[in-house]
Amino acid sequence: MCAEPRPLIVAVEDEAELLNIIKEQLENAGMNVQGYNRCAPALRFLQHNFANLLLLDLTLPDSSGFDLLKELKQQDINVPTIFLTGNSLEQDKIKGLNMGGDDYITKPFSYLELVARINAVLRRAEAKADFNVTKNVRTIDGPFEFLGAQVHPERLEIEFPNHTTHKIGRKELGILAYLNTHVGVVITRKELIHSVWGIHADIRSRSLDQYIVKVRAAFEKNGLSLDCFKTVHGIGYIFEPGKPVA
After folding, report:
1. Strand partners, 187
2. Does this model's pTM top 0.85?
3. 32 φ/ψ angles, rounded to the nearest 5 degrees
């Protein structure tokens, strides 16, 4: 029997002794911990690695926990976050939660309670992710119209005007959903790949081109042209339905 994977927790805390105790307690509870005493190295790690949860102090030598979470959100790096701080001001608790924090624990705290709260946030995050088809589409998303066809995320299907139903894969669905919400603007390869595959996907991969070929073929087979989805050389693509194709 394979052992359960150990969740990776990134802990950002400038008190060295407290950080070591947190790491010891969480590792004893079956978690892996990556610890930092500054925001900058934590940000660099999260830009290139997946983490299950971020444990974040508010007051840090190079920045604040609020600023780090804001920067992560701006870069579309979404990590479940628990603020762990000596700041008990109600307005800061409200600010942290409104920014997208999942919990707010004030010092001093019980390590048993800390582990319990981490596990609770991890369970909520896992349950939410169960609905994900790709990073940008969920099974509970409603159908949408795309060039006269009806795309059904909940069934991974396209209904064409000729009454044909075509099954599609998750990545094709993600591409269609992204184009549907980014009409008439230049889309870089990087943003399309990261939106469908996730922030840590290899943007040099040619997989995107293969999935676009599948999408084009499905529409052409059923009498619809995707010529309005054009390549912008050296940059990416643009989707302009309704505009005459040159």
Report:
1. 237
2. no
3. -95, 145
